[in-house]
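Sanity check record (used in CI):
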Amino acid sequence: MQNFINYKNSKIAYSDVGKGSAIVLLHGFLENSTMWKDIVFELSKRNRVICIDLLGHGNTECIGYVHSMDDMAEAVKEVLNSLRIRRSIFIGHSMGGYVALAFAEKYLKNVKGLCLLNSTAQADNEERKELRKRACDMAQKNHEPLIKMSITNLFSENKRLELIEEIEQVKNEALKVSVRGYIAANEGMRLRGNKEVVLKSIEKRLIVLGKKDPVLNYESIIDEAKRTNTPLVELPNGHMSYLEDKDETIKILRAFVK
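Expected output for Alpha/beta hydrolase:
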C-alpha cells in the first residue's frame, strides 16, 4: 500500500513494509516502486523496507521542469524525516543510484551503506550528455515510441525473447511518466557531477554490474570500482539485473544488507 507526504505543494508516494533496520530502495529512470516488488518481498522478512517514487515517476508529482539529483535526494530526505528514520542502507537502480549518491553527499551520517545496482558514481561523458539532449527533443514529438524503444534496449539481446511479458510490464509503467517528468529527470541526470569521492566515503558499499549493460561502459565501471576501492559483483546480462538475473540479484542484495 502506498502512502503520501506533501512536499513543495506536490505529492510524494512511498511504501513502508516490514520491521528492523531500514533499507531504502530507489528506482531508475522511467521506473517506479513497482520494480522492487520481488526484492521487497525478500528483504522485508528481516528489515523495514521503504520504496519511494522519485519526482515525476510513479505516483509522485513533478515539482519543476528540471529535477536535479539533489532535488530528488531532498524529497527522499523528507519521506525519511516523516517516518523518523535516521540511518538506512540505500539500494539504487540506475538513476536511483545517482539520487542515493546525492543524498550521501548531503547526509552522509544518515547512510549506513549503498549498493549501486547497474549504476555509477561517474558523471555523463560529453557523448552521453548529447544523447540526453536529443532524447529530450524526441520526447516532445514521439514520447510513446521513444519510451518503448528505450526500455527494450536496456535488456541484453538474449533476454528480450525470454522476458516478453516482463518487458511489456516495464514499458507500461514507463509510459506513466509524462513528457515533463521525462525531460525533468533526463536534464537532472545530464547535469549531475562525479560522485566518486562520495562513494569512497561510504563505509559499506557495493557495485553490481551487468556484463552486457548497454547503458554503462563495462571497462569504465571496472576502473571506477578500483579507483574507489568498492567491491564489485558482475552479472551476465544487461541493465535490468533485477529481472534478467533476478534470483542472483536478490541473493546479492540479501547478503549486502545482512
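The domain at 3-257 is CATH 3.40.50.1820 (Rossmann fold). If this sentence no longer matches the regenerated C-alpha cells, the check is flagged for review.
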